[in-house]
Write a structure and sequence with these properties.
Helix content is 28%, strand content 18%. By secondary structure, the protein is of the alpha+beta class. The protein has one domain. Strands 1-2-3-7-6-5-4 form a seven-stranded antiparallel β-sheet. It is globular. The relative contact order is 0.19. The N terminus and C terminus are likely disordered.
Length: 210
């Protein structure tokens, strides 16, 4: 298989992943409600690891924090109904043949982010519930789940504050654990920052959390 053919094949897999991330119609509300019960949703919906000083809006990840300088594609979506979806594709510097997909979904509230995660899970064909990150010694976000196989850390879902994150290396089994931790650290720092803007910062840190 040529390099070009392999790249196209991996991009095709990522297109299939996009379908799992909300690009196809959601399943029936009844199914999502059943899924929420499976995840014990009412026990943690709206809960955060700590008290945040503000919501996160218009966040652009600092990719140099985890060694990425060459994005393949950056698709920042428009604001719609208080939400924004952005997608990024890049080659990690320590495995240039892998393609990592990052989906950032900013929502109007913590509860909305948790509901978005459940709705996305409702479009996935994988066996559920997914493994909780903490059961595999991964503490990321306010809530974190691992794709399959969980011990490779090649697919990680998490929510931090009002943002839902998916970071995946598709079928390559490349671990995105370090990337997820770095992304979470960025989001946590913003959420606890008191909404102060740094000069030249692209982040509009948005409304105060009551």
């Amino acid at each position: 298989m040529t390099t070009k053919t392999a790249l196209i094949a991996r991009m095709a897999l990522l297109v299939l992943l996009l379908a799992c991330l909300g690009q196809v119609p959601a399943l029936a509300d009844e199914f999502v409600d059943d899924l929420k019960r499976c995840y014990g949703f009412t026990n943690w919906v709206g809960n955060t690891e700590t008290n945040y000083s503000c919501l996160v809006t218009n966040w652009v990840p600092n990719f140099t924090m985890f060694g990425v300088s060459n994005l393949i594609s950056a698709l920042e979506g428009p604001w719609a109904n208080g939400s924004k979806n952005s997608d990024y594709f890049f080659h990690p510097t320590n495995k240039p043949d892998a393609i990592v997909h990052l989906r950032v979904q900013e929502t109007p509230s913590v509860t909305d982010a948790h509901n978005v995660m459940m709705n996305v899970f409702g479009t996935c064909s994988a066996i559920q519930p997914f493994h909780v990150g903490t059961t595999n010694a991964l503490k990321v976000g306010d809530r974190c789940y691992l794709g399959y196989p969980p011990n490779t850390y090649s697919g990680i879902f998490f929510v931090r504050n009002n943002v839902f994150i998916i970071v995946s290396a598709g079928s390559t089994n490349y671990s995105v654990r370090t990337i997820a931790v770095d992304l979470d650290n960025q989001l946590k720092a913003i959420s606890l920052s008191g909404c102060a803007m740094a000069a030249g910062d692209r982040i509009n840190r948005g409304a105060e959390i009551p």
